[in-house]
Predict the structure.
Amino acid sequence: MLPFILRASFRRVKLFSLAVACISLVILYWIGEKAESLFFILHVFTLGIAHGALDRWMFNIANPSKPIRKLTFYSSYLLIVGLIILLWWFSESTALILFIIYSAWHFGEVEWNHLFKKVKQVQNGYAFFWGLFLFSSMFYLNSSETVQVINIFSDLAISSVDFSLQTTFIIIIAWLSYSLIPFILKWTDAKNVVIQMANVLALSLIFYFFNLAISFAVFFFYFHSLPSLSFELKSIDKSCFRPANYKSILMEMILLSLIPLLGGIGFILLDEKSLIETVLPVLIILGSAISFPHTFIYAWAVRRTSDSGKSR
């Protein structure tokens, strides 16, 4: 797997991710609803956590003149995570809105910025609104569960949303049309846009046929974490911080994934409530805290590697 990630183009990684996502959903459909909780935990708490475990390496790649020590990095990281959790404590609605904003930016960045010929402010703006389209589609196509989750852990007064096929059709067509803009403006080539259009169609179908937890897990694992991990490992492999072997990196990823993975499985086994009522709200709060520093480190590394590529 590692040799494929290091050699394959970003486009090939996205195609691979799309194919494996479809296979995993077929297996889940065949097993049935009893496997949904385990499917969610395995996808979100494994690679989803692991790709963020490379943030220390990405920080050093983005700032090669002043590499940071492991203890200093994780102490600072945990401090930022703690501040975000405190924000949830003091103002849930502010924390939720902030989370959606920087997540939309980050998800859109991973989807598009590696495919653009050049990345400028206008492309960053485009990627951000693409991320908002992603959230709009996921939330609307799972509106009842989205309202349920928001009402569980936030102070926002959200009423039920009237679902209609007509609105669904409008959202998907708008998302597809928006995804054509990079080709129209010649920001990327046609092959990349075709892949993105296929991703939008696939994600729309996934959001429509599967619940919120499964929809998010599939997107987060296959459409976000795998491509992110591809960029991160390639960046490490090409940097001056390249390790003699990847054993230390893999061990760091495994260790940082193991505790939340076991905790999530234990949560499911000990709690009789639904996945929406237990794991998902906790994941949103912890995920928002962890992803805040990750979002900025990743963006910094993308900009640094892009500038390095231009200077060569």
Q: What stands out?
A: Residues 2-305 form one domain. Residues 98 and 288 are 9 Å apart (CA to CA). DSSP finds 15 helices and no strands in the chain. The radius of gyration is 19 Å.
